[in-house]
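Figure 3 (text version): structure tokens given as input.
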């Protein structure tokens, strides 16, 4: 197989045989031309006939070049396929070519839509074998080789990231473009505080100015500078460094970047408190210009303050010093300080291990796992991207208006509610086994003409004595349930009042489990049932990412953060308190109402998926593991020890969050037919979102949810594997739910069976 050696600076790169993916719905002269050209050039090639097979083949092979037929839109949407491929991490350095029709009778069209879709370039159809071959050879020595060099940069940056020397890279204009973790640790800055900042230097005396002129006299002729000086940390302290500064020659033979490599001096414990004097040590050889380049201004360096008077800089340093001297410390700060102190007297391997621990602790995503190999699965990637992020923060010209100005249903606009005693026999029969997990919510949906929430709510709330706790009448509760149900969108295939009723049923079922009853107080049970009822009220059938990308009024109102969950909680209380006829809280004592309200809001916000792993991990570490330890130590019968774990306020909050989270996404743990129905409904809602994103020109949040290509079994298996299994293992260990776990295992086998037969639908053909 042909291989190529590529020179990249001092690196010699070994490039394997190129791989090409041809995406043509039908065989024709053009596709045959490229196949011949691949063979002649010695490239390996695959051919795909559909977008789905193309995506799967690419994720398996990671081709260098993809050639997509854009001549016949009736077969598939080439631009949509390109966008789908570009959402995968593997496509970062892939060259994608668009084959377009040759038109001689009309004006040349713009290439911008193709570039926007993610294509690298276009190829005007020409089935000549030599034309196809020439195109591939140009790609090999042009874009492909350039992308190959870019891939090599990842190894260089890995080396920089792991280097124990502090490294800083700036532009020719002295604007900081990169600093490595060692630099952040040494100087006390985070990378976000430095990038795109210009280093400023205000000479304090002539000696200092002379020193800077000495350095600059070397860098002007492209020489390195090496020496020692005192640099200023973020907190105002001075540290002595051995610094090497290297100019990097780039385009046009000019200096385009400066690289600064710093190391703390051995006697650095003697920290000077003033930076009046930046000292050049005697070994600095000025005459021979062994100096390595640093632009004027990078010495006082780390003063990345905005350009202003020296007085302003001094005042800012003074206020920052006061902040650093404060005694208020967050627990995580105390942990980091303890580790830092331990590092000083630790052997090198231990110190390096503690460094890695500190890197992890300083991240903001402490509880979100890395995708690892799952990152190659587009279904998992899209689900994580769609459910655990708030979109690309990109406004479009066509903002999506949701609910902000619409009139919500209120008690007075609804027909008079029915009494619990007057429920029709068919509905009564449909609710007979509502205390069992295998209760069929869809039978109740049909019997109530898509109004299951009022009826199921009346029965469950009566069973738990909610009216007695709230000191409200049954008629008020009925009115409230009607108002809430009326503000669910029956047009949504999934997020409608049937989903709310299903979550309410699951919540009531979990509340009846012995371990849960031991843990929660009556006010917790009331809060859980109300939160389940309102947790998705006025849901638009679109994800948070969609609303943020579309610039919706709700996204703007809630600052792109937990947009829908914040709206559900806020609207629920607005609808409840604006009319006395449905205000179930009106007779509560003020402090008790505030406590109840706080718990309801916390539980509704817990259904937001961006903190999924935080909630699950905290539950496992604070509840599962301590309970397991008690059992292992033979303290299973020690009621006081168990009570201490279960009844602490912090742990009760974690249990309530876990309860509603499991109730909210328990569909894979339902009996098979219910599981299949829910899978079809959520898929349809995601398909509709993808359709609308394409109509509006918005980023497609979950490209695999294309109704023409999506594999529902694969999407279900990805969701179960990534979100469900670990969570329900933890919840089962706590609440003892063998029937749910049996359904879950059976449903996994069912979806795997369909996927193994390459079926993309909900049910096998008859």
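Below: residues designed for each position.
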């Amino acid at each position: 197989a042909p291989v190529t050696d590529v020179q990249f600076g001092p690196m010699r790169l070994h490039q394997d045989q190129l791989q090409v993916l041809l995406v043509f719905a039908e065989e024709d002269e053009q596709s045959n031309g490229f196949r011949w050209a691949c063979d002649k050039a010695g490239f390996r090639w695959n051919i795909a006939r559909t977008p789905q097979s193309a995506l799967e083949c690419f994720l398996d092979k990671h081709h260098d070049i993809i050639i997509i037929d854009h001549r016949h839109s009736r077969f598939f949407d080439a631009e949509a396929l390109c966008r789908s491929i570009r959402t995968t991490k593997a496509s970062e350095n892939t060259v994608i070519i668009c084959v377009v029709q040759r038109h001689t009778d009309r004006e040349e069209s713009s290439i911008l839509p193709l570039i926007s879709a993610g294509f690298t370039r276009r190829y005007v159809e020409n089935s000549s074998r030599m034309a196809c071959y020439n195109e591939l050879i140009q790609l090999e020595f042009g874009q492909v080789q350039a992308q190959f060099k870019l891939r090599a940069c990842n190894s260089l940056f890995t080396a920089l990231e792991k280097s124990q020397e502090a490294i800083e890279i700036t532009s020719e204009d002295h604007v900081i473009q990169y600093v490595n973790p060692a630099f952040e640790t040494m100087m006390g800055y985070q990378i976000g505080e430095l990038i795109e900042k210009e280093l400023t230097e205000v000479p304090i005396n002539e000696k200092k100015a002379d020193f800077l002129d000495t350095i600059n006299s070397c860098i002007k002729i492209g020489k390195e500078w090496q020496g020692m000086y005192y640099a200023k940390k973020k907190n105002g302290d001075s540290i002595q460094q051995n610094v090497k500064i290297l100019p990097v020659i780039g385009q046009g033979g000019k200096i385009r970047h400066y690289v600064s490599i710093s190391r703390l001096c051995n006697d650095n414990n003697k920290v000077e408190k003033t930076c009046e004097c930046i000292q050049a040590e005697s070994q600095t050889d000025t005459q021979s210009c062994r100096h390595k380049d640093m632009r004027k201004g990078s010495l006082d360096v780390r003063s990345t303050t905005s350009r202003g008077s020296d007085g302003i800089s001094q005042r800012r340093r003074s206020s920052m010093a006061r902040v650093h001297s404060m005694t208020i410390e967050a627990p995580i700060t105390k942990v980091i300080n303890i580790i830092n102190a331990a590092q000083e007297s630790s052997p090198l391997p231990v110190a390096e291990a503690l460094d890695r621990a500190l890197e992890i602790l300083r991240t903001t995503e402490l509880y979100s796992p890395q995708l690892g190999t799952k990152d190659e699965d587009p279904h998992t990637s899209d689900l994580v991207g769609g459910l655990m992020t708030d979109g690309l923060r990109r406004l479009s010209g066509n903002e999506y208006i949701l609910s902000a100005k619409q009139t919500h249903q209120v008690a007075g606009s609804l027909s008079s509610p029915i009494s619990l005693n007057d429920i029709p026999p068919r509905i009564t029969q449909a609710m007979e086994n509502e205390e069992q997990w295998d209760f069929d919510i869809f039978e109740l949906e049909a019997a109530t003409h898509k109004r299951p929430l009022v009826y199921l709510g009346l029965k469950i709330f009566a069973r738990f004595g909610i009216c007695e706790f709230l000191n409200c009448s049954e008629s008020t509760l009925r009115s409230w349930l009607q108002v809430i149900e009326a503000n669910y969108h029956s047009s949504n295939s999934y997020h409608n009042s049937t989903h709310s009723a299903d979550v309410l049923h699951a919540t009531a079922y979990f509340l009846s489990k012995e371990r849960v009853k031991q843990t929660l107080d009556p006010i917790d049970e009331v809060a859980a049932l109300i939160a389940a009822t309102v947790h998705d009220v006025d849901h638009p059938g679109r994800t948070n990412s969609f609303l943020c990308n579309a610039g919706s009024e709700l996204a703007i109102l809630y600052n792109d953060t937990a947009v829908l969950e914040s709206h559900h909680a806020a609207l629920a209380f607005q609808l409840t308190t604006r009319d006395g006829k449905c205000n179930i809280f009106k007779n509560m004592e003020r402090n008790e109402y505030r406590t109840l309200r706080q718990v309801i809001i916390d539980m509704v916000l817990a259904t937001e998926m961006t903190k999924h792993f935080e909630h699950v991990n905290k539950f496992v570490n604070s509840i599962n593991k301590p309970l397991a330890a008690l059992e292992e130590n033979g303290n299973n019968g020690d009621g006081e020890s168990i009570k201490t774990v279960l009844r602490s306020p912090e742990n009760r909050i974690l249990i309530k969050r876990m309860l509603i989270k499991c109730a909210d996404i328990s569909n894979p743990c339902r009996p098979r037919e219910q599981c299949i129905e829910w899978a079809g409904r959520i898929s349809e809602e995601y398909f509709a979102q993808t359709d609308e994103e394409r109509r509006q020109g918005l980023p497609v949040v979950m490209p695999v949810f294309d109704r023409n290509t999506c594999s529902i079994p694969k999407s279900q298996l990805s969701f179960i594997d990534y979100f469900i299994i670990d969570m329900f293992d933890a919840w089962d260990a706590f609440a003892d739910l063998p029937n749910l776990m049996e359904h879950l295992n059976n449903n996994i086998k069912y979806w795997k069976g369909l996927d193994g037969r390459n079926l993309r639908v909900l049910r096998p053909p008859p």
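The mean pLDDT is 82.
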